[in-house]
């Protein structure tokens, strides 16, 4: 880990290896060299709204301290809350000892020093109890500002703290408000330090800390009051940039300072060379995330003003840049756009070893983190995959150019021509999980269709996604711009991107039901995608069982983690206990498929009972159930399916046709594996995803699904003039779509046939 004296095999090391890699920030790489940490926890974190101790938050705090301590970090705690704890106890004591007259006219004003004296022992007792359960020993150190006036005090303090840290004891500091020289601890800001925020900053310098973490009741420093929707979190504080722009809200509801006090203490400590992060104490893992180098909270750093020159690209700037680049891409001749795709294919093949190396690094981290096998399978770039992807890109490059393709041309009046043409949607935001090969497919389709693109891949494949994005962007000419395809690395930016309905035109989430549902709920931008891949295969009573065996095994075993893999096998009831079905079930079990049964299958075959028919396994498991007939199968699929891909295996043409017409799914097959539902297998070259919606595009979405239409009118001075300016005596179709052309040809042929049959020809 690059941290002196610290082992690399503990819990934090493992957590860092499996961390949210996309959240890491290069400006926070200094945490790799941190050993001594001061954690300051405020009163608003220690206590709840009712003033009582927030035991859950205290427990999470102590668990994180324990984790760091066991990893070899030297952790010092500065805690507030003693006055709040004492006030609660004294209020209760005063209430108990009150007379009836006192209760009629309650006076609850309590001296802050008395509250501190009572609360210090109670607060420390809580820390001692929680840490004791975690096999950690805390120690209490109470200080006042007068102590620091003694020149020898600093040396004595350092000796004591170092001795405690060597014994892996957690020093717990608090200002001794009970004997403070200030007239009112909550009002008097004189002295060397004046609250626990400034005390934490002072101790960070005195004790040679490498990092100060200040836990607050908000996620960090905002550009305005956190309750204001217009306020944005500031991830890196630059005094020259933010110092005069920030407006502070109210002070802490219970403590002495509030955010203004924290900023002052953090800025002072940072100017002395001690990095400070203000983060939420309400989150259960904020401290660990800070130590991973994740981009959470607000960082104060001595060199932050230098970083400010290379300002972060905001979500809006990234989206606008992609849009501008897409417009330049659309202006290129078709052959130049085609060449970009060919160059990308060549670049991928030339860098295959590098891509595989980065992918293997992702896989190693995922396996060490204990990720599910199905997720690891989706992450894997297998041998030959890059060659296959390059081939798909070349197929897309060789497709007919879709941009400005004319669908229809009509002369609506003399010298007034109406045209409908294809045009790009604009800017696409694709959010996908696990599969780095999806990045290549999506990027190639976006380029062919002339769209700008923003990509957010899963954290587990960050290295794979980063190298693929770098290679693809490197093949895009400067005339278009490298920002045509943006890679979003921080998941916090997704929320900002989803608000940009004036710049981003379509969101396509590829992943779990939870991901798709969250995206749909969080944006006004149109969303195209599917939530689940609960694909069915129905074996009808007339099915060829040899064919059924081939199809079912392929649909389940070929790639069980795919969204088009079979999840439910429906079987006609007449096939129960037949040799053909028994052979099929045996083959599934031989392949390692675990079979769960619906109510009927559970009772007759004694297989484990499934909890729900609406279940996507993404693994070597499936649900089996018997149905009465094809109509029962159709009703079951329409009720429990996800409108993705469903298949019937039968030799009965009437049953097949009923299934194909009545199953309400994006793809419905007869005697073919559900695994065929794929853009490449449908001849689309690739796909950005599979849509189960009914608007804009459905099924595997290729280039045509990333296009919309533009209406063009070519005139010669015509005006409407109350519909008098343009005579409508002639509407001439100059060009029709292929569908309309085919329909016209069929009508003409039918007309000629009718005339022939009647002796007209």
From TrEMBL:
Keywords: Amino-acid biosynthesis, ATP-binding, Kinase, Multifunctional enzyme, NADP, Nucleotide-binding, Oxidoreductase, Proline biosynthesis, Transferase. Pfam families: AA_kinase (PF00696), Aldedh (PF00171). It comes from the Eukaryota. GO terms for molecular function: ATP binding; glutamate 5-kinase activity; glutamate-5-semialdehyde dehydrogenase activity. Its EC number is 2.7.2.11, 1.2.1.41. Pathway: Amino-acid biosynthesis; L-proline biosynthesis; L-glutamate 5-semialdehyde from L-glutamate: step 2/2; Amino-acid biosynthesis; L-proline biosynthesis; L-glutamate 5-semialdehyde from L-glutamate: step 1/2. GO terms for cellular component: cytoplasm. It catalyses: L-glutamate + ATP = L-glutamyl 5-phosphate + ADP; L-glutamate 5-semialdehyde + phosphate + NADP(+) = L-glutamyl 5-phosphate + NADPH + H(+). InterPro entries: AceGlu_kinase-like_sf, Ald_DH/histidinol_DH, Ald_DH_C, Ald_DH_N, Aldehyde_DH_dom, Asp/Glu/Uridylate_kinase, G-glutamylP_reductase_CS, Glu/AcGlu_kinase. Gene3D superfamilies: Acetylglutamate kinase-like, Aldehyde Dehydrogenase, Chain A, domain 1, Aldehyde Dehydrogenase, Chain A, domain 2. Residues 311-575 form the Aldehyde dehydrogenase domain. Residues 35-280 form the Aspartate/glutamate/uridylate kinase domain. GO terms for biological process: L-proline biosynthetic process. P5CS plays a key role in proline biosynthesis, leading to osmoregulation in plants. Involved in abiotic stress tolerance. NCBIfam families: P5CS, PRK00197.1, proA, proB. In the N-terminal section; belongs to the glutamate 5-kinase family. In the C-terminal section; belongs to the gamma-glutamyl phosphate reductase family. PANTHER family: DELTA-1-PYRROLINE-5-CARBOXYLATE SYNTHASE 2 (PTHR11063:SF13), GLUTAMATE SEMIALDEHYDE DEHYDROGENASE (PTHR11063). This is Delta-1-pyrroline-5-carboxylate synthase.
